[in-house]
Amino acid sequence: MSADEITVSVIKADVGGWVGHSSIHPDLIDAAEEHLDSAKTNERIEDYHVTHCGDDLNLIITHRQGNDSDICHGLAWRVFEACTEVAKGLKLYGAGQDLLSDAFSGNVRGMGPGVAEMTFTERPAEPIVVFMADKTSAGAWNLPLYRMFADPFNTAGLVISPGLHQGFQFQVLDVHKNRQITFKCPEELYDLLVFIGAPAKYTVQHVLNAEGEIAAASSTERLSLVAGQYVGKDDPVCVIRCQSQFPAVGEILEPFSHPIIVEGWMRGSHHGPLMPVSMKHSQCTRFDGPPRVVALGFQLADGKLIGPRDMFDDPAFDDARREASELATHLRRHGPFEPHRLPMDEMEYTTLPQVAERLEGRWEDMGEPAHGDGKKEVKAGAVDD
Ligand code: F6R
Ligand code: MG
Ligand code: MG
After folding, report:
1. Based on the number of CB atoms within 10 Å of its own CB, is 288 exposed (0-12), middle (13-18) or buried (19 or more)?
2. Measuring from atom 5 of ligand 1, which residue has the nearest CA?
3. Strand blocks (E) in 143-235
4. Which of 96, 103, 130, 368 maximizes the CB count within 10 A of its CB?
């Protein structure tokens, strides 16, 4: 990377909850700040902000080492290890749960923590917004990112701002096959939606503008795939550059004016509304939720984080919160039934496969379905009477 480039790394992990999985203890924030403060004094990083969303500890770090730097990732790993020790001392819940390996190998990707990072040349004024969610999974940003960067009903600038009118490119990860594809929008909008409309399988990793400049980066780790067993939801983060050749701050926040339904919530096994909240309400309570999102805004000044501004601490989002509560109540009434509970194939790390296996021999074969294979043959052009 060149000398005038800056990297923004948002690295998060759940290293212990207070109380249960609802929030984190302030001693964890203090321990993280102490570590990052000495890294800043030693000029290994430019600046940092430590925060949390629900039970996840979030480190927002600016530095000059580029993406996937072992210096920054190593620092974050040591912070999480130190905070795990604090969590163990306080017997916090699930101390160290997201640190899936004892052996750090230079990069936190695939080791449990989530990472969203981007490297760019700082503009004369560089507003960024960092979104952090709890009790949901990596694909939760698909719909909001689509609205921000591809939907003119959300982002007026796509129609009326020369800086945005050329559209944006979406880099999408196929999380099961670990491969990626780029869609140019608006040209390939419908192709894009075929995939990102299935957020459990495809996640938007990056958004770039038409010139290839980075606009957004999200964490795409799926903890269940990393760990091979249920270890909690991904609780993803996302960092976005705003204004001028990117959507305005207000266009970045607008998708959250109506709560969307995401997967996660209790035991990572339920659909629920994503509620935009201020830091004061950055905790998960009702049925371990509902899933929450916070947004912190900063201006960058030569790599320094000027902020944060607590962007959802605003009555303009009260209606979204009320709507989310109503949706939560509606879904909760379904109890253990879909669509509140996730579909069976998304529940592979719960007791469901064990129950199914135990009962396998109890099913009695009923022979062929009455109508052959049970499927009615539909001829082209046929009309049902
Ligand atoms: C969801 C989450 C919580 C826990 C739930 C049960 O991401 O963290 O909803 O799954 O509280 O936790 P355990 O099994 O640890 O008692
Ligand atoms: Mg937890
Ligand atoms: Mg969490």
Report:
1. buried
2. 267
3. 168-174, 179-185, 202-209, 214-218
4. 130
Catalytic residue list contains 349:
no
Q: Using the mean position of ligand 2's atoms as its centre, give its distance from the Cα of residue 20 in Å.
A: 7
Cα(246)–Cα(262) distance, rounded to whole angstroms? 26
Residue nearest to atom 13 of ligand 1 (CA): 267
Q: Based on the residue annotation, tell me whether 184 is a catalytic residue of this protein.
A: no
Which tokens belong to 350? 């719960």
If residue 84 lies in a helix (H) or strand (E), which one and from where to where?
Answer: helix 70-89
CA distance 371 to 359: 27
pLDDT greater than 60 at residue 245: yes
Range list of H helices, 218-306: 223-227, 249-253
Residue 146 corresponds to which tokens in the numbers above?
A: 């689509």
Which tokens go with 3?
A: 């000398």
* 230 assigned to active site: yes
Which runs of E-coded beta strand occur in 16-148? 47-53, 56-63, 114-121, 126-134
Distance (Å, rounded) from C-alpha 47 to C-alpha 63? 7
CA angle 297, 299, 300 (to 5 degrees): 125
pLDDT in tens, 175-230: 989 899 999 999 999 999 999 999 999 999 999 999 999 999 999 877 777 777 66
Residue 235 CA, ligand 2 centroid: distance in Å: 10
Taking the alpha carbons at both ends of the chain, their separation in whole angstroms is 66
Could you count the other beta carbons within 10 Å of the beta carbon of residue 110? 13
Ligand 2 geometric centre to CA of 16 (Å): 6
Write the Ramachandran bin of 200: left for phi over 0, alpha for psi from -120 to 50, otherwise beta.
alpha
Q: What is the DSSP letter of 266?
A: G
Q: Probe ligand 1: pick from 14, 234, 288, max atoms within 8 Å of CB?
A: 288
Q: What is the pLDDT of residue 353?
A: 87
User: Residue 235 in 3-state DSSP?
Assistant: coil
* Structural contact between residues 221 and 56, judged by C-beta atoms closer than 8 angstroms: no
Residues having C-beta closer than 5 Å to ion ligand 2: 14, 17, 21, 55, 94
Q: How confident is the model at residue 377 (pLDDT cuts 50, 70, 90)?
A: low
Cα separation, 198 vs 146, whole angstroms: 13
Predicted model pTM: 0.94
